[in-house]
């Protein structure tokens, strides 16, 4: 039985939307994203029936192919579209614009910041941080080792954070972090919204090992809702102010184990980015038997 016949229409449409999201985050263009997805499916159906049946996870295979195509396009000097590509993109444009507002989900400011990264850095960040692909899968796409891919993603994060926010004083950072904690503990939506800039973006890094949001959340209202939901008070759950990467952040504990670490980027008076790390591998150092006292500096690897 062919793959398309063995799954529901909802799953097929969700698969296509996922691929469009991957391609859009990678390239920043709905037209190009539509072209990439079309080319990805063309390669799928170019396989023999036997080859397709040998693929245990078609969606993962398709995502890998789409990521590779995007990486190749990013490497083009001017990313010019010529010949058959141009014709395909022209036809795809109308269909792409009918998609449910991908541009509204990814801020143009963030896409412009992504454009400053090298193709490999952008691929590592988008595929690992945004879509939660495992490092080995991302390494396969970018043609690097896992440690090299980790370095690429780390460099991308640092560049994005440096570009999108201007450092504020430690005192201001501490004040905002404590206000954020208070707003989340008391479920004060008005206070929380006042702490966020209009174009705020929240990243939830589950590393594919925790069921976290699969895409960054963008916009004051959406981020506020996500944080209030995520940090709502629950039994045996504690939200504390603590040093994260040398600046005041938040640490979530469940049954005395660190379950999430939150760092903030603040520009002048408001939060521009929220980085929520839920990946158990990255939290390993936070759950060592001898944790330092609250306020001691800890960093995320």
From TrEMBL:
Stored SUPFAM superfamilies: NTF2-like, Sigma2 domain of RNA polymerase sigma factors, Sigma3 and sigma4 domains of RNA polymerase sigma factors
Gene3D superfamilies to which the protein is assigned, alphabetical: Winged helix-like DNA-binding domain superfamily/Winged helix DNA-binding domain
InterPro entries recorded: ECF_Sigma-70_Domain (IPR052704), NTF2-like_dom_sf (IPR032710), RNA_pol_sigma70_r4_t2 (IPR013249), RNA_pol_sigma_r2 (IPR013325), RNA_pol_sigma_r3/r4-like (IPR013324), WH-like_DNA-bd_sf (IPR036388)
GO biological process, one term: DNA-templated transcription initiation
Pfam families: Sigma70_r4_2
rRNA-binding as UniProt keyword: no
Keywords attached to this entry: Sigma factor, Transcription, Transcription regulation
Domain RNA polymerase sigma factor 70 region 4 type per the UniProt entry, residue ranges: 109-147
GO terms, molecular function: DNA binding; sigma factor activity
Top-level division of the source organism's lineage: Bacteria
PANTHER family the record matches: ECF RNA POLYMERASE SIGMA FACTOR SIGI-RELATED, SIGMA 19 FACTOR
Recorded family membership: Belongs to the sigma-70 factor family. ECF subfamily.
Protein name in the entry: RNA polymerase subunit sigma
Organism field: Streptomyces cadmiisoli
């Amino acid at each position: 039985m062919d793959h398309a016949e063995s799954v529901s229409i909802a799953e097929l449409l969700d698969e296509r939307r996922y691929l469009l999201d991957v391609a859009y985050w990678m390239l920043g263009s709905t037209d190009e994203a539509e072209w990439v997805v079309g080319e990805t499916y063309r390669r799928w159906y170019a396989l023999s029936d036997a080859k397709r049946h040998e693929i245990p996870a078609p969606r993962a295979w398709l995502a890998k192919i789409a990521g590779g195509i995007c990486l190749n396009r990013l490497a083009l000097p001017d990313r010019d579209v010529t010949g058959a590509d141009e014709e395909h993109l022209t036809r795809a444009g109308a269909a792409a614009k009918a998609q449910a507002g991908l541009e509204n989900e990814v801020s143009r400011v963030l896409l412009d910041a992504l454009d400053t990264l090298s193709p490999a850095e952008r691929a590592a960040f988008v595929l690992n941080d945004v879509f939660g692909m495992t490092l080995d899968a991302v390494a396969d796409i970018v043609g690097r080792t896992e440690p090299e891919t980790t370095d690429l993603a780390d460099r991308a994060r640092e560049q994005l954070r440096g570009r999108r926010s201007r450092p504020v004083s430690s005192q201001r950072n501490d004040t905002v972090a404590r206000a954020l904690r208070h707003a989340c503990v008391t479920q004060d939506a008005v206070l929380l919204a006042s702490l966020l800039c209009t174009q705020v973006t929240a990243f939830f890094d589950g590393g594919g090992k925790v069921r976290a949001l699969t895409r960054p959340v963008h916009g004051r209202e959406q981020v506020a809702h996500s944080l209030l939901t995520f940090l709502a008070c629950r039994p045996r759950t504690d939200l504390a102010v603590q040093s994260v990467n040398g600046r005041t952040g938040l640490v979530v504990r469940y049954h005395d184990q660190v379950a999430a670490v939150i760092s903030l980027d603040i520009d002048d008076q408001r939060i521009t980015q929220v980085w929520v790390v839920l990946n158990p591998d990255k939290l390993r150092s936070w759950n060592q038997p001898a944790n330092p006292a609250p306020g001691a500096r800890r960093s995320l690897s």
